[in-house]
Design goal:
The chain is an alpha+beta fold. Helices cover about 25% and strands about 30% of the residues. It is globular, with a radius of gyration of 16 Å.
Length: about 200
């Protein structure tokens, strides 16, 4: 069985996380380390992916921004959001495409939410995980030699209005929200425990 190194952090500045995962990605490519999960939160910042830049989509002026090279559009980061960065070499038979990897990550989040009594699902509007018609999980990856960086976010108790006021690519304002806004009382520890409890089952590592 492939071993995964789980590294948990409190609050990490976004640019520090980028440097960390970039270095780990190269170490994983060179087989100097095993698959690694980075789990953390960030101070508030909106990352702007290539799709958003190409479409001229920007957040309101009162949001700090950072351009990124992962797939996707605008992604809010901040308090009350769990961020998981999988530095993983995707080399299994059911991981032959980016779409299949995204599907596995979605399934991982859906299974984890189920443990907490929350019904998550996919939605044709955009990749990620949705609850009661609202998007609570975003996924955006960047690959080099099939080793990923960047990852997924789960909004569990974000500040009122901050993620809701952001219009993502093709999504209206208030489409993205947090579990707390949907009246689910979930802590970061709850999410971490649920994710790790089904990690092997969902990702076969």
């Amino acid at each position: 069985m492939q071993v995964t190194d789980i590294q948990k952090f409190d609050i990490v500045e976004y640019n520090d996380a980028v440097e960390m995962m970039s270095a780990l990605q190269m170490q994983r490519i060179n087989e100097e380390i095993s698959d690694t999960l980075l789990i953390m939160e960030h101070p508030e910042i909106v990352t702007v992916g290539p799709r958003a830049r190409n479409d001229g989509i920007r957040p309101p002026e009162d949001y700090a921004t950072q351009a990124v090279d992962r797939g996707g559009g605008l992604t809010w980061h901040g308090p009350g959001q769990l961020v998981v960065y999988p530095i993983i070499h995707w080399n299994k038979e059911d991981e032959k495409s980016v779409a299949s990897i995204i599907y596995k990550l979605e399934e991982w989040v859906i299974e984890s939410l189920s443990i907490l009594g929350i019904e998550g699902c996919r939605d044709e509007r955009m990749q990620g995980v949705w609850v009661e018609g609202k998007k609570i999980c975003s996924i955006g990856l960047s690959f080099l030699r099939w080793v990923s960086r960047h990852g997924l976010t789960i909004n569990y108790n974000t500040p009122t209005g901050r993620v809701e006021n952001l219009a993502g690519c093709g999504l209206a304002e208030s489409t993205t929200t947090s579990l707390h806004r949907l009246n689910y009382s979930v802590s970061r520890r709850d999410l971490e425990d649920a994710l790790l409890s089904v990690y092997h089952k969902c990702l076969n590592r």
